[in-house]
Design brief:
Blueprint (H helix, E strand, L loop, with lengths): L4 E4 L4 H12 L4 E5 L2 H7 L5 E4 L5 H7 L5 E4 L7 H16 L2 E3 L26 H20 L2 E7 L1 E3 L7 H10 L4 E4 L5 E2 L1 E3 H11 L11 E4 L5 E2 H12 L5 E4 L1 H8 L3 H8 L2 H4 L7 H6 L8 H23 L3
Parallel strand pairs: 1-2, 1-4, 2-3, 4-5, 5-6, 6-11, 7-10, 8-13
Antiparallel strand pairs: 9-12
Length: about 325
Amino acid sequence: MNELHVVFGATGALGSAIVRCLSRHNKPVLAVVRDEDKAQRVLPEDTEYSVADALDTDHVQYLCQGATAIYNCVHTRGENWFKLTENLIAGAKAVGARLIYPSNIHVYGPLQRSPATEDHPRLATSKRGILRNSIEKMLADAHTRDGLQYVIPRLGGIYGPLVTDSFIAEITESAIQDKQAFWYGKLDVLFDLVYVDDAAMACVLLSSVPQEPGDDPVWHIPGCGPITGRRFIELTFQAAGHKPKMGVRSRLMLSALGMAVPAAKELVELLYEFETPTLMDGSKFTTAFPRFRYTPYEEGIPRMVEWFREYLAEQASLTGKP
C-alpha cells in the first residue's frame, strides 16, 4: 500500500521535526501549515506543503485524501480543540488512516504512583488536563463507535530547537544572555524532558506499530531519563559558556501573579508536577522498539543552545535590538 503522512501544524517544533524525520526516511509527506513564510524557513527544501486552517472541515477532508497516517501537531486554544479534533477524526475515518495525537502527563493529575504506566487513572485536576481528557475521550469514542485507528504518544516536556513557547525557552535565552534563569516549584525534583527529534521519531514509529483489538493506544515517551531543574539549568548554562544563575518561581509567587495573568493561574494548577516527582514509565515503548536511542541531555542541550543562539541573533537583527 502506498504511504502518505499528513502532518497538521507542520511549522511548530514537533510538527517540523516529524516532517524532517519522515523526509530523512524517504516517506511521502504533506505538511499542512498556516504560515507559508515560516514553512519555507523551517521545513526541508523539497517538502510538499499546503496552506490551510485545520478548523476548516472541508479543507481538512480534502487534505487527508490518500493519507495512511495523520499527525496532530496544531497549537490551538480553548474550544477550538474540539473542532480541530472532530475534523481530524473525520479526515482519518474517511480514508482509514491512523491518527497520531500527541499528548502529555497532565491527564493523570497528581500521580497515585510514580513513574506512572499507561493504565494510570486519568484524574486530572487542572484545566489543561481536564481538556486533554475530554479530547482523549473523543478519540476513544470514535474508535468504539466507528473503528478509528489512533495512537497517543504521551510525551515528556519537550525541549530542543524551535521550542520557543515554553519555560525551557526562557531558561535557554537567560543562559545565552548570562541572566538568572527560573525553574518552577522545586529545583531538585525529578522531571521528564524529551528531545524534540526523539519525540518526532517516536511519533513516526507509532504511526505503523501493530495494534490488536483491545490494545491500549497510549504510549509513554518520557525521554532519556528524568532530570532535576537544577541539573538542566547547569547543563544549559554550561553549553552557553556561563556559570549557572538560577532561581525558583514558587507557588506563592505564581498565585499572586495569577490574579492578573490567566496563564500564571493555569501554571499554579500544574505546579504539583514540579513539586513532587511526576514521571512516566516508558518501558512499553522501549520494549517494542529496543533499538530506539534517546538523545542524552549532554547532546541535546548543546544543540538547543546552538539553535537558540542563532534564533536570538536573527530576532535581534529584525528588531534592531542587541
